[in-house]
Amino acid sequence: MYAIVDIETTGGHASANGITEIAICIHNGKKVIERYSTLINPKRDIPIYISALTGITNQMVEKAPPFEDVAHDIYHLLNNKIFVAHNVNFDYSFVRHNLLAAGYDLQSKKLCTVRLGRKIIPGLPSYSLGKLCRHLGIDNESRHRAAGDAEATAQLFSLLLKSDTQNHILQSLKVTSKEQLLPANLPKRDVETLPSSPGVYYFHDDKGKVIYVGKAKNLKKRVCSHFTGNNTGPQRQEFLRNIHRITHQLCGTELVALVLEAVEIKRLWPKYNRSLKRFEHAYSLYAFEDQRGYMRLAVDKHRKMTGAIYSCNTLFEGRTLLLKLIESFELCPKLCFIQNNNELCTGIHGENCACHGGLLPHEYNEKVEAAINELNEALPTFAIRDAGRTDDEHSCLLIEKGKFYGMGYISHYFNVDSLTQLKNHLTPYPGNDYIRGMIAGYVTKFPERKVVFS
After folding, report:
1. 80 Cβ contact list (under 8 Å, min separation 6)
2. What is the CA 409 to chain-centroid distance, rounded?
3. Domain residue ranges in the chain
4. Which residues form the GIY-YIG domain (predicted)?
5. For residues 259 and 438, is the Cβ–Cβ distance under 8 A?
6. CATH architecture observed for domain 188-278
């Protein structure tokens, strides 16, 4: 037995909106044998644009029963039936959420007439209920009202049952299918063709734009995890509705996937990614020559496309590094913007310091250059050689002078002993402290995979 359901609501997600109308058609596989329909008081105002769409106003539902008063009837109509709806996950999320609030735990198999329509009647320009019904000659004089849409969906379902020569409905109901968990607009083959390997996956909207980037140790398992559970929050419900396609890139290891994910989020700026979007270098160490010819070192906010000597997350970290350079190379704290008053220089040379002309520009600049060279030499240069995407290649990531250079794949037989030759085989990528920290942590855990250049 099938329960064909349609609801009207005050908004797009169950956790913060209410049902204003519900209609249920009980279908025995041949025809509708029972009908149920009622307005429902959602206990909140119906937005004007929703009223304009459905025709349901606050006055109409004012004396209608709240959901908990009809929950018993609805549960017993739906229990032990296959829950059918056009974009089933939307209707099911609302109904199940409200039934749970009333003390009823609905656990139903589901069928989506959007997904079934795409399979059984392929090639149509649109599978919205209105356009699908017009194409099939199904009349619906009460569009955007629960009873009218439920009746139209029931007629559509009857046609799908008769036209299903490939047993798509039976296949969808198998325990192992999991198809009804998928977003309505996502082709099942996009998930079926995913490998169980490390990689980065991309969710695309109906226009092909990337709306989410994720990484995975097992691509198929991770992607499927997005579609399980009954989270009724607005972000997840909107997110699922907008997924129309999945693409992916294989990666040799989870580390490569982690790094590529961070790079791609910064490059594509997907709508539904949050945390890695916000990561930026906060401060950097810069060197420049002033009007008198003296080299100045300064810690300032990080600026893109500038020649920073070193980048860091906090002003404290940058100033601590600069203080060490001042002490080690007898630099002037005033010329390094550490001392900003008009009093005597607190540097080791006092009144004979460069800021008072005690050292000529070329004499002082030699000290600054020595400090920069020492800093560059202290920053590590190494590669990580690890598993590749296939048995005859290795993945390789390169840190050069403390900064992430890039990554790529090399042959098993490639001898990583020349930094210049290795860089010719790698793709440069923008880096940040997040990527650098991941790689440093990985090297600490797997030191045998580190390649140091002499």
Report:
1. 1
2. 25
3. 2-181, 188-278, 283-378, 382-452
4. 196-274
5. yes
6. 3-Layer(aba) Sandwich (3.40)
Q: Where are the alpha helices (DSSP H) in 354-431?
A: 361-378, 419-423
In angstroms, the CA 154 to CA 27 distance is 8
pTM of the model: 0.59
Stated length of the chain: 454
CATH pick for 2-181 out of 3.30.420.10, 3.10.310.10, 3.60.15.10, 3.40.50.300: 3.30.420.10
Phi, psi for 428 (deg, rounded to 5): -65, 140
Q: What is the pLDDT along the chain (454 residues), one digit of tens a residue?
A: 999 999 999 987 787 789 999 999 999 999 999 999 999 999 999 999 889 888 999 999 999 999 999 999 999 999 999 999 998 988 998 999 999 999 998 989 999 999 899 889 998 888 889 888 888 889 887 888 999 999 999 999 999 999 998 988 888 887 656 667 788 788 888 998 999 999 999 999 988 899 999 999 999 999 988 887 655 555 677 888 889 999 999 999 999 999 999 999 988 899 888 766 555 557 888 999 999 999 999 998 877 656 788 877 788 888 998 999 999 999 999 999 999 888 888 888 888 898 888 889 999 999 999 998 888 777 788 999 999 998 889 999 999 888 899 999 998 888 877 888 898 889 999 887 788 878 888 988 899 999 887 6
Pairing of strands 2-9, 82-85: parallel
Pair 10, 42: CB distance under 8 Å: yes
Evaluate whether 295 touches 368 at the Cβ level (below 8 Å).
yes
Q: Which helix (H) or strand (E) holds 254?
A: helix 254-268
d(CA 333, CA 118): 71
Cβ–Cβ under 8 Å, residues 61 and 13? no
